[in-house]
Amino acid sequence: LRNGAVFMIAMLIGILGITANCVIYQQKNGKNLLLWKLISDILWFFHYLFLGAYSGSAVALIGVFRELVFYKENQKGRKSLFYLLFFISITVFSAIFTWKGVISIFPAIASIISIIGFWKANPELSRVLAFPVSGLMLTYDLCCDSYVGIVNEVLTLFATTFAIIYNLYKRKVDKNENRCC
Fold this sequence. Notes:
Helix content is about 85%, strand content about 0%. It has helices spanning about 5-25, 30-50, 55-75, 80-95, 105-120, 125-145, 145-180. The model has no long low-confidence stretch (mean pLDDT about 85).
């Protein structure tokens, strides 16, 4: 395939990744949150791979395995500190291995923040952590010409903001309903 065709494939995969990411932060439970994050990471792995953005691709691949492990751990009702530290360590290693300058650490830092959020499997925490994660990835996307990635991060910020506002509003309404009667 020519470079233009590879770029177009990367963009099409990224559009599917956008769709998955918009759904992630609307989830009400940790199980569904991890499932959608898994789908998202698979798509973004291929998107960044086709772009030659190997730091982004590496952390997305690590994310695939991370979500599978955390999903199994959540099913068993436990959370191992070992896995948290293991995934943080290999993420740091991936930044070193795929080093193309300072920009290579942005996906790694974003991934480490995500690791903490998704390990907790707490949708509210994950929504709040989406802001620094998206900021870091937005910067990375600008540097590696991932136009779809830029759109994704902007949409993720909007979707996350909407989810936070909606949940705060719903909580306030529920509280007022319980108080009235």
